[in-house]
Every structure is written in structure tokens, then in C-alpha cells.
Amino acid sequence: MPSVLVVEDDPGIRASLIDILTGDGHTVLSAADGFGALREVTRTALDAVILDLGLPDLDGSDALCMIRGISQVPVLIVTARDDEAEIIQLLNAGADDYLVKPFSGGQLLARLAAVLRRTARAGVLPTAYGDSGLPAPGPVTVGSLHIDPGARTAYLDGRELRLTRREFDLLAYLAAHADLVISKRTLLTEVWREQYVEEQTIDVHVSTLRRKLGEAASSPRYLQTVRGVGIKLVTPR
User: How far apart are CA 155 and CA 144, in angstroms?
Assistant: First the structure.
């Protein structure tokens, strides 16, 4: 079943949302603030995020922009705010839907299901490969790393890697261009497809990918940084 992150600072509301979602069969993670949400989005393969706007450390709109800087995971805003201009602004900023409190559990589940259906129709690859509407490329093997973009699976030494959507897209793109240096600007254009994302975002994702690949920047096995040029995924010798 889909994995959903609930971002809500009120313990009672958070518990209620978790109960509704788990009762419908979803796998649920939770965060009480914006930075906790960003940590989960970075390290966990999520199918959707339910995001409250009134967070203690970040306004939800800022959290949304930060999430969009690192992931294309569908985001459903839930909040007591009902200002039309703000709703339009959030949708334009990358929210997939908006639900005003109070709402029923049935309405939440229906909105979430609709968001997940739209994501599925758009294709399983929401960035570098899926946006074109073309079929995903075939499996790629680099050393003992095996990546299947169509199935969105990645294995290292026979062990499946748990990657976020963006980590998978980045790894798949680099693997498809193995042993070639790819500039950060190209990665932002081809993988992130965002105009206003800092190149430091790539460094963060490369760092987490290295950790999941079991290597370090000082002794990389697969991911190499070419200073001042870009990143390349190399075939181990």
C-alpha cells in the first residue's frame, strides 16, 4: 500500500490522521515540524505527503517549496486557512491538492486517492523520464549495481536499495550515462526540471546516495565528484 508522510504539529490531529490512513491500509510516517518532514522526504521512499501549514518551525508554504526543491512526491495540503489567493499560490508552488479543516476521514481518503491516481496516470517516473510521456528506458547494470527504471528498483550486490523518488531518478540518470561526467546544471535541467533549485541540492542527494551505496566521498566506488565539472557514476574496476 502507499507510504504516506503526515506533517502535523498538533498531537491529537496527527494521531487522528494516522488512524484514518492506517485504517485504510496505508503505511504512515509522521513529523511534527517542517525540518522533520524534510528529513523524511530526503531519506524515505514516499508516495504522498499530507502537509499542515501551521508548523512551529517553518510556515507550511516554505516547507512545500523546500520539499519541491528535493522531491516530486505528491503533496496534499491540509489546513484551517481558506484564503483563495493563498490556495492558488500554494497550488502554483507545487501542491497537488488542498483540503480545508474541518474535514471528514472519507473526504481525506478520497482526495488522497485522487492525487495518487493522477500521479500513477502521469507515469511512475515523475522527473527525467516520466515527463516526456515516453516509455521508461530498459534496465541498466553498472558493476554490481542493477537499476530498472520501469520497475523503479535498484539493487546493489543483490540487495534492494531503499531510495527516495529523487534519489532514484538521479541514480538512474547517472547510470544511463555511466562513466560520463554530468554537470550539475544538466542534472538540474534533466532530473529536477526546476528553474530555481540550488546546485547544493545535488550535493545533498549525492551524499545520501553515497551513504546508501555504502561508500564515502574520500573513497568512492561508484559516485565520483569531478571538482568544478560535475558528477559521474563509474564502472568499478
Answer: 8
Could you tell me if 76 and 116 lie in one domain?
Answer: yes
117 and 135 assigned to the same domain:
no
Mean pLDDT per block of 10 residues along the chain (237 residues) reads 88 93 91 90 86 89 85 87 82 85 89 80 43 58 90 91 86 90 83 68 87 90 88 89
End-of-domain residue from the set 71, 88, 122: 122
Instruction: State the pTM of this model.
Output: 0.55
Based on the domain organization, do 145 and 199 belong to the same domain? yes
In the numeric block, the cell 510556515 is attached to 59
Cell digits for 130? Answer: 516520466
Name the helix (H) or strand (E) containing 6.
strand 3-7
- When divided into structural domains, the chain yields a total of 2
> What domain range is 204 assigned to?
130-233
Question: Max CA-CA distance within the chain?
Answer: 59
C-alpha distances (whole Å) from 221 to each of 4, 39, 148, 189, 231 are 33, 25, 20, 26, 13
Contact of 155 with 204, CB cutoff 8 Å: no
Distance CA 163, CA 236 (A): 21
3-state class (DSSP) for residue 2: coil
